[in-house]
Each structure stands twice: as structure tokens, then as C-alpha cells.
Amino acid sequence: MIVYFSFPAHGHVNPTLPVMQELASRGERIVYYGSERFEPAIRAAGAVFRPYTPRVRMPVRGPGPFARVSDTLETLLDFSGAILDRQLDEVRSLRPTHILFDSFAPWGGLMAQLLELPSIASVPSILIDGAIAARYEAGGRPPPEDPRLTPAWYAEFQSRCRARLARHRLPLSPPQLLQTYGELNLVYTSRLFQPLAERFDRRRFRFVGPCCEFRPGAPPFPFERLDGRPLVYVSLGTVYGDGTDFLRRCRDELADSAWQVVLATGSESGALDSPKNFIVRRFVPQVEILKRAAAFVTHAGMNSVQEALLHGVPLVMAPQAADQFWISARAAELGAGVQLDTRNLQDGAIRAAVAAVLSQPRYASAAARIGQSLAAAGGHRQAADEIQRFLRRDLRPAVHPQGGSAYPINREPVDEAIRVSRS
């Protein structure tokens, strides 16, 4: 029996649902820990839902406590400690054979270590190390606005990490909170899209492509209103969908064009007037829209970019935060779209970028080439194959004699954030 620990946000949960459904159809039993808002989708995928006992401080709109690195670290530390304190015995009583966890859910890796069980990580973004961060730093990734992130604060936080998990006799470093890998790691992209893929061990890091075939509860949409004009889809996703200023600029610049535009506001407060060539909805069935789209204006979240490229849709990318700057830089580097400078967005830039990706075939050609690599990676069936292959192995995670974590940890994200904040 498998126990999965999610990071309860749409961009992290959605790619796991087709995998869970596939595993359940093959007779595997999965207990899936998450927050109540995802319970219907998790149950529909065939997993057994279990709620996290401590409440997850996930924002309804915007990044909330994950806007700054220091806030992110504190939130993840508090939640990791609460999960271990309150639910370790519950998980032990389930008698799992393996632990799966989101790579942004460090409590899953810690749980596997405490129970001495084999571990698999679900990696919902591209893999990042210092070399990759440096490669794209000049491409417009803004420095974190986090005045607390100083060496003094970091040293104090390291002490808090040690104290918080002392009762479990687990050492924990701040970088492990931001990125925890397992013995097997499933990455939802292709080796082609992953920057510097050769830096990652082929045996441990398996690129399975996007998993978007199963999306329960898709909202209705008036497909009969699509009239054959080139379709431009505009969305900032579920977390940043309330970026009304940017969406209003999209409305103003794309109004009365030769294109038909579907705009997803993501929230009630993002309601906008509809020009004649627009269809505006709060939520739309994204994959079905992308199957019909000629271009996608996006925040460059991992799921959105991968789903678009899987269907050969070129991109106009307006990254808002976090890994979106790396993802958009990689897509632009491969020729599949245009990356906008969201810190200094000139009038007419959105319309000009859309016109460019629609009029220059090289963007669609690059998107199609990447899409072929994503399809060839195998998707949810390949992910299930990799998991079942791992389940058949008789392995246990190695633990250092001093009790330290055996899980490979990228120690560079926090160190790099501190360096940037001091410069």
C-alpha cells in the first residue's frame, strides 16, 4: 500500500490525479493526504482520501505565505512539524510499503525517513540547481524582495529547524524544506525541456512528461461560440489569476483584433467587461481550450506551459513569481514563445507578442517539437510504470549513521536567495 503526501495546491495536485487513477486501475491501493477542497477530485481518481490534521495555510488567491522565501521556509517548517507530531502514528498504523510525496512537501520525505520506507518524489516543476539558476538569472528573474533573508536570520532559522524536530531525532536543513527528493523522482516534463538534463542521474530522475488526461469537475464552456478565427487563450492560472491589472491590459490590447480571445479571470474579483471578440469566464476547461488554441498568454506555471506545448501551442509568457521565470526562460530559449518583461511592460507589448507568435511559424514549429518530446515521455502511464517498477524492488532508504537525511538535497536555493538579497 502506498501513502502519498501532497502539497495542496492545484499546480501540485492536478498532475498526480491521472497517475493515481492509473495506479488504482492496476490494483494499487493509495492513501492520499491532502486538504478538503481536493477531496472530491482525489476520490474520483480512485485514491483513499485522508485530511491533513493541521490546517494548511494555502491562499485562495495570490501566493500568500509563499510570496517570500523566509515566509515559505517558516510555513513549511511549521506544517512539517505539525504533520509529524499529529499524524505519524496514524500513518504508521496504515502499514504502508512505500511513501510518495510532492517534492515541495518535505514532511513526506521526513515521514519516509522516520518509517524507514522507500520513497518516491513527485516533482511538479523543472529541476533547478545552481548552474541552472545562474544560466537564467540574466534573463529577467527579479531578486526576491525579502529583507528578512539575511545570514543572521538564516542562522537563527537553522536553530529553529533543529529544535522543531528534536523530538523525532531528525536533522533538517532549510534547503531540504524547499526541495526534497526521493530514491525515485518523477518529473512531469521531457529531457528536452529540462535545462541541463545531463546533470541529473537517469536512474533516479525519470522524465515522464505532463500528466493532464484526468481532470474531474471541469467547468462548462460554450464551445459553440468559437467561430474559427485564430483562438488566443489568456490565463494567469489558479494562484495568480487575480492579476486583474495584467488581464485588463490583455483585454484592452487584444480587443477588436482579428483573433477570438478566451480569457479566464480566475476569480470573481477579476471580472472584466467582454469586448466583442472575447469570451470571458472565471474558469474554463483549460486542456480542451488549448486543443483549439493558436496562442496562449500565460503566467508560465509549469502545468500550463507543459499542457500548451503538449498540444503544440506557442506561448506569450508573463511570469509572476518563483519558478515561472525559469520555466518561461527555458520555453523562450527553445523557441516556443516570447517572454515578456513583467517588471517593465511597455504599452502594446502583449498585442505585439501575440502577433509575433501567430505570424511567425518558427514559434509553432518549436512548440510542436517540444510537444512531441512530451508525448513521447509517456505521461501518466509511464509514471505508473516507473512507480510499479520501483514497488517491485526490495529496497529501503539508507540512513547515515549519525541519523542525517539520506535524501539528496539541493542546498543552493536558499544560499542563492541570501546572496541576491545581500547584493
Overall description:
The C terminus is likely disordered. A seven-stranded parallel β-sheet has the order 3-2-1-4-5-6-7, sandwiched between helices. A six-stranded parallel β-sheet has the order 10-9-8-11-12-13, sandwiched between helices. Helices cover about 40% and strands about 15% of the residues. The protein is built from 16 helices and 13 strands. Strand 4, helix 5 and strand 5 form a beta-alpha-beta unit. By secondary structure, the chain is an alpha/beta fold. It folds into two domains: about 250 residues, Rossmann fold, CATH 3.40.50; about 150 residues, Glycogen Phosphorylase B (Rossmann fold, 3-Layer(aba) Sandwich). It is globular.
CATH class of the largest domain: Alpha Beta
The CATH superfamily of the largest domain is Glycogen Phosphorylase B
In total, the number of strands is 13
- CATH topology-level fold name of the largest domain: Rossmann fold
Chart the SSEs and their pairings:
Layout: E1 2-5, H1 10-13, H2 16-25, E2 30-34, H3 39-44, E3 48-51, H4 69-94, E4 98-102, H5 106-115, E5 119-123, H6 130-137, H7 151-164, H8 174-178, E6 184-187, E7 205-207, E8 231-235, H9 244-254, E9 260-264, E10 278-281, H10 286-290, E11 295-298, H11 302-310, E12 315-317, H12 324-333, E13 337-339, H13 349-359, H14 361-377, H15 379-391, H16 412-422
Parallel strand pairs: 1-2, 1-4, 2-3, 4-5, 5-6, 6-7, 8-9, 8-11, 9-10, 11-12, 12-13
Helix pairs in contact: 2-15, 4-5, 6-12, 11-14
Keywords:
16 helices, disordered C terminus, 13% strand, Rossmann fold, 2 domains, six-stranded parallel sheet, alpha/beta
